[in-house]
Write a structure and sequence with these properties.
heterodimer; A: 178 residues; alpha+beta; Alpha-Beta Plaits; 2 domains; 4-stranded antiparallel beta sheet; two-stranded antiparallel ribbon; 17% strand; B: 569 residues; Formate dehydrogenase/DMSO reductase fold; DNA polymerase, domain 1; 69% helix; globular
């Protein structure tokens, strides 16, 4: 099926946001927005769900906490109970205070790096990946809204373009994709 | 959109558009480096290489080449380590703690402050590593199974906590910094014309495209990383202080150390940020983004943390007497009146008195004064660590082993070398990286930009027509561009007939001094400036015999003047 992608370019974030609001209220599905910086408030309008990366960070943190505890208990209590200054490591709880700094650091280490790696993988932003923004100016001062005819079956491409033109765009472009 | 009180000083001066921000930050990267950059880089590189030479000599010969002895087992090495770690505190404090507090002024400085942090922590990490003597066995600090049977590293030791704290801090700061850099690398990538830079920035930008979902994740990741990095900032120097505080050496064995070290670290870190940024903003024409207000905010932080440090010094003195421990009391009497009295009083002067001068608004808004104080503070903070380490060690419990520490030339070479290396890294950063967080600065332009704040309809912004630029060119597709060009030619002609004086300082890159020179050249209004052509500029520059700036800069000024003219209409 022939799918047409329509790119509408704006030179202001608020104009784009209001435009998107208008289009969505008419039942148009906005498939993507490209912008040089985060446009606050655009996500609920175009139906982008909040990310769950925060939950993942928490899980990674818990993993780090557990690993650090198990590791230090094994190293310092089970495998080689060190006796330092007459204060032996009989149980983990005896010396737990001395283990807090590393437990904390390792928790943060796992949470931060786990989240960062997940973020890169989910975004598919990895070294050497090709850029996908439709116009190089979208990383400078232009804001592009992307509509697809396949997602807006009730409108023709011309109707979509006519609606877009009412929203204060500065440029319009379209592309056929297979 | 977030609205800021009109009485608050704007964070971005002048009439800037999103594109201007991109231009101002990317131009120094895309242009050829100024000669001064090569000179500074050369000097830093030579000093850095000398330092590396000293380190190699040390590794080949042994730690004995340092001026250490049996009594003073830690001296310049650990002093430098703590000094560099301390300097490395400001960056993450600015980007993480100030992010949590929603301080928007951080956005102009966080990128370079964080770069500074990372390079400073590199330098800090060098010292414990070379202090091991056998650098190639450095991996022994990690809890790895080994050929000594089930012998593990000592998890009860603050020295091992330090390994974890510093490496976590370094790697998390690095990731935080790089995640913020990716969208800005994408901006440079999309502007790059030459194939090699384009390829490089394309790899470094990880294929960032600025999708709404990606920005959504970006913001959350920044927030969570800030939340994670904030306790990290405080933990790192607390743990560094444990290296001393958990020992039983009089002068080290105090519970005040963690907060005192953290305050001192922030104090010296901000001082280093001031030193670097005051030069950078000038050299890279970023005066519109990093201006007096930013410097003032940082000076207030220096004043507050400096006061905490001063209070800690006095508390320490008081407790050494009040505790009734004569060894403790002697350690402090010896600091102030013993053979190292000069180091103690240098520390007191630099760290206690100098930040108190920041109470005067005139002084804390003076850039030259700030620059001087920032260097004084860093000298003072180096002496603080020297005093804590060397004077506490040099007279121990046995008077027969009392000793003095004299640095060898390798001590000095390694220290000076790390300063050289630090500047090598920082200069490379300033040359190839976006020194301002482009995407963040753009996002505060409408809330805190001067031209937007001073708009008459500030309080009732029309949602669909928020900027004059948009009002001028709505509806139609890009063919409008050529039409507006034609229109601008007309306005130039009209305007040039008027005799007017405008505030030329509103044009990015023009300060009071340049404005004065422009007036002398007969350029007093935006119209005059907008009418500049490359030929006119050449003849003007020839006349004065002292070229003011590059031709591109002139044309940018002309363009901005034109925009200001259009806005005034």
């Amino acid at each position: 099926m022939a799918d047409k992608v329509i790119y509408a370019m704006y030179d202001d974030d608020n104009v784009l946001k209001d435009g998107a609001k208008k289009l969505v209220s008419k039942g148009v599905k906005v498939s993507e927005v490209f912008s040089p910086f985060p446009i606050h408030g655009i996500d609920p309008i175009i139906g982008v769900k909040d990310t769950r990366l925060g939950i993942m960070a928490f899980i990674y943190g818990l993993t780090g906490l557990t690993l650090a505890t198990i590791g230090m208990r094994y190293f310092m209590v089970v495998d080689w109970p060190m006796n330092i200054g007459g204060k032996p490591n009989f149980t983990y709880m005896d010396n737990i205070l001395a283990f807090i700094p590393i437990t904390f650091e390792f928790t943060v280490l796992c949470a931060a790096h786990g989240m960062a790696i997940t973020y890169f993988l989910r975004n598919k932003t990895l070294p050497g990946m090709p850029a996908q923004n439709p116009d190089p100016r979208t990383t400078d001062d232009r804001f592009v809204m992307e509509l697809r005819t396949s997602e807006n079956a009730q409108f023709s491409a011309e109707e979509l373009e006519a609606m877009l033109k009412e929203t204060g765009i500065v440029e319009l472009d379209q592309k056929d994709v297979a | 959109m977030h609205k800021e009180a009109a009485i608050r000083e704007p964070l971005i001066l002048g009439h800037k558009t999103y594109h201007d921000i991109t231009e101002d930050v990317c131009r120094p990267i895309e242009d050829k480096a100024p000669r001064m950059w090569y000179i500074l880089f050369g000097i830093a590189l030579i000093i850095g290489l000398y330092g590396i030479g000293c380190i190699l000599y040390l590794l080949g010969t042994g730690v004995g080449v340092w001026g250490l002895n049996k009594t003073i087992g830690w001296a310049w090495d650990i002093t430098n380590f703590v000094w560099w770690v301390g300097i490395g505190h400001a960056g993450t404090l600015i980007s993480a703690v100030l992010l949590l507090f929603r301080q928007k002024w951080r956005m102009a400085i966080n990128r370079s402050a964080e770069a500074m942090t990372i390079f400073a922590v590199f330098m800090a990490g060098l010292f414990p590593l070379i202090h091991m003597g056998r650098l190639w066995l450095g991996y022994w600090v990690l809890p790895l199974p080994n050929h000594f049977g089930s012998l593990w590293v000592n998890f009860n030791s603050p020295l091992l906590w330090d390994v974890f704290a510093i490496s976590t801090y370094l790697s998390v700061s690095l990731v935080f910094w790089y995640i913020g850099l990716i969208p800005d690398f994408a901006t440079i990538r999309d502007r790059a014309k030459k194939p090699i830079p384009k390829k490089m920035y394309s790899i470094m930008s990880f294929g960032w495209s600025g999708r709404a979902k990606h920005w959504n994740r970006f913001e959350l990741v920044s927030l969570v990383l800030a939340g994670l990095a904030t306790p990290l900032v405080f933990s790192v120097h607390s743990i560094v202080s444990f290296d001393f505080a958990t020992s039983v050496i009089p002068g080290w064995h105090t519970t005040i150390f963690p907060p005192y070290f953290v305050a001192g670290a922030v104090f010296s870190g901000f001082a280093m940020v001031q030193t670097l940024l005051l030069i950078m903003r000038k050299a890279m024409n970023l005066e519109a983004y990093i201006h007096t207000k930013h410097v003032e905010y940082m000076n207030i932080v220096i004043m507050v943390t400096g006061s905490i440090v001063g209070t800690a010094y006095i508390t320490e003195l008081f407790i050494s007497w009040y505790s009734g421990v004569e060894y403790e009391a002697y350690a402090f009497i010896n600091r102030a009146t013993g053979p190292y009295w000069w180091a103690y009083w240098a520390m007191m002067t630099c760290n206690v008195i100098s930040p108190q001068l920041m109470w005067f608004k005139k002084l804390r808004r003076s850039l030259i004064f700030t620059f001087v104080i920032s260097i004084v503070v860093n000298i003072g903070m180096w002496f603080e660590r020297y005093v804590i380490i060397v004077t506490s060690l040099h007279r121990d419990y046995l008077p027969s082993s009392w000793s003095m520490h004299y640095p060898s030339h390798i001590d000095i070479g390694v220290y000076v070398g790390t300063i050289g290396l630090f500047f090598v890294f920082f200069l490379l950063f300033a040359r190839y990286f976006p020194v301002l967080a482009l995407n963040e600065v753009k996002s505060i332009l409408k809330g805190s930009g001067e031209s937007y704040k001073n708009m008459p309809d500030d309080h009732h912004p029309e949602p669909t027509e928020p900027t004059p630029a948009v009002v001028a060119a709505p509806e139609a597709p890009v063919t409008e561009e050529s039409a507006s060009e034609a229109k601008s030619e007309e306005t130039t002609e009209e305007a040039s007939t008027e005799v007017a004086t405008d505030d030329l300082k509103k044009i990015g890159g023009i300060g009071p001094a340049k404005e004065k020179r422009l007036h002398e050249m007969g350029i007093t209004s935006y119209a005059d400036m907008a009418a500049m052509t490359p030929e006119k500029i050449e003849s003007l520059e020839k006349e004065t015999g002292d070229p003011m700036t590059s031709a591109e800069e002139w044309m940018n000024w002309a363009k901005e003047a034109q925009e200001l003219l259009n806005a005034n209409k």
